[in-house]
Amino acid sequence: MTDVRTPFRSRALALLVAAGAALSAGRAAAEPGSERAAPEVSASEAEAASRFQRGVVLYQEGDFAPALIEFRRAHELAPNYRVLYNIAQVHYMLGEYAEALRAFEQYLEQGGAALNAERRAAVEAEIARLRLRVGTLELTANAGGVEIAIDDVPIGKTPLAAPVPVSSGRRRVVASKDGRSAVRIVEVAGGEHLEIRFDLPARPRPTEPLRPAADRGASTTPARGGASAAGPAVPLWPWAATAILAAGAGVSGALALTTTSALTTRRETFGSTREEREALDDRRRALSLAADALAGAAVVMGGVSLYLTLARGGPAPAAESGARGSPRTGRAAITLTPAGVRIQGAF
């Protein structure tokens, strides 16, 4: 079977040399005997030209994925609209038609008046062919700020400004927010428009801290002689503070895991910048530190809450009665030691 991309590849090879010459023009030295000094070339421009030539060699060898990386690096180091044409070519050969379409459109936009009518017409013809191999996905969710990724490539957060162009074929779409996620596998035909809505499950409500048994069962009926039979009430604020600190530690930990996943995706995504990766790494470190600090504070506050519950939750001591058969109220002393909690007394 004949590969329909072969004619396109043949035309592309003829244009690679011209683009490489334009990218390397800044490195041309002055002619012998000329009084005009050669233009100074920066290190980034020199590296861009070298990477571009390396990409041309890889493209000619049919090693398209590494060629795409080299062309992208060349364009990042020394932006030149001509390189966008080569990037579009490699995307086309890899079957990434949506990315090729986007690169061709940027080529026409940035090339502007520098493109002659023949070149513009040829590129517009390629764009018309690619649109037959590209569909669009209109992605919505039942909440705002839901992160959308297609084939493990982050797209943005809902609400998205416009439908997302995707190459025809089977696509994996993931929506996630705050530890909740949903996955859809869809088949997209060329020129097809699909609407996909994600309904993420509702966030679970935080559970109320359990009230100590002594406080729940305490009787408000005064005992004989006017004394309260239930004794001092157990304060609830230490348990509430413990629950808040524990919840904060859980949320911070979940956000740290989400940020770690996003950082991993960025590291594996072509074209991600060092600034984006460093920002995600700084956020991950800050969230992890916050989670550790909140967890430690929750443990300390839990110990304080337990101490106050044991110390104040028992029945109030009453005077021993001299009558036979009268009950005796136990007394206990609670002491915090480096090894734990010590309880002493008679019951």
From TrEMBL:
Biased segments, Low complexity type: 216-231
Superkingdom field: Bacteria
Pfam hit, one: TPR_2
Keyword terms of this UniProt record: Membrane, Repeat, Signal, TPR repeat, Transmembrane, Transmembrane helix
InterPro entries given in the database record: TPR-like_helical_dom_sf, TPR_2, TPR_rpt
SMART domains for this protein: TPR (SM00028)
TPR repeats: 48-81
Transmembrane domains' residue ranges: 236-265, 286-308
Keyword match Membrane: yes
Keyword presence, NAD: no
Region entry Disordered, spans: 201-231
Annotated signal sequence range: 1-30
Protein name (record): PEGA domain-containing protein
Source organism: Sorangium cellulosum
